Amino acid sequence: MVRRPLGNHHLGPDTLLVTSDTTRTEHVSAPTERLRERISGARVVLWDFDGPICRLFARHRAELIARDMVDWLAARGLRGLLREEEIRSSDPHYVLRAVGGRHPNSDLVAELEERLTTEELRATFTAMPTAYADPLIRTWAAVGARLAIATNNSPLAVRRYLDGRELTGYFTPHIYGRTQRLDLLKPDPHSLRRALNAMGSAPGDALMIGDTPSDCHAATEAGVPFLGYARNAEGDERLRVAGGDVVVDSLEPVLELVAGGR
């Protein structure tokens, strides 16, 4: 087990960070017993999309999409719908959720959601695969796990990306993404529960892999064990504060355990 400080952040006593040897000078391959226990009982694996599977906005920058959404509202005299922190947000989902909370089920929300979906579809062409995600998906399926996606992104974007990586068949029909019911986006556990119900799985037989506090909160609410994925110290800190107690900075040790029979 590896416990180490990350920048100015320190792991709490109940948090496990499992690292890989992606940077030889400071990372050591260290599959641990706690990570093994976390994945060994997973008969169903629920994946968040943007983060654990790919970096959707690696080149199609999310902050520019959020700014475009704010400008689109402003051009219609609706900038006042947003608070100052929402106007400054670099997260387009945050902007969409804010408008949806004030005008639920409206044509305005439907049009704004459609604009975000269009941008997510464009982003799939330049999305960067998360290291080890593709072989982990294939290997987990090969050893008998059933896979699903529970995401706040558009299911259309998810399918387009998976099609391009020849991964769609590992998940379909269990892709549960954003609808116009924005109140049911994570951290609400709705998408996780949809997946569990459709697959006939008890929460304790599943595992959620996510990279945000909303993923962690949704898994906790649904009673699903959670495995955090953090690309950097800030991501690890956010997951730790949210309650994530097993966090990896690479999917490599997960792949090693799954391929080795866990």
TrEMBL record:
Signal sequence region: none
Any GO molecular function: hydrolase activity
The species this protein was found in: Streptomyces flavalbus
Gene3D superfamilies the record matches: HAD superfamily/HAD-like
EC annotation from Swiss-Prot or TrEMBL: 3.-.-.-
Keywords: Hydrolase
Protein name per UniProt: HAD family hydrolase
Keyword Hydrolase assigned: yes
Record-linked Pfam families: Hydrolase
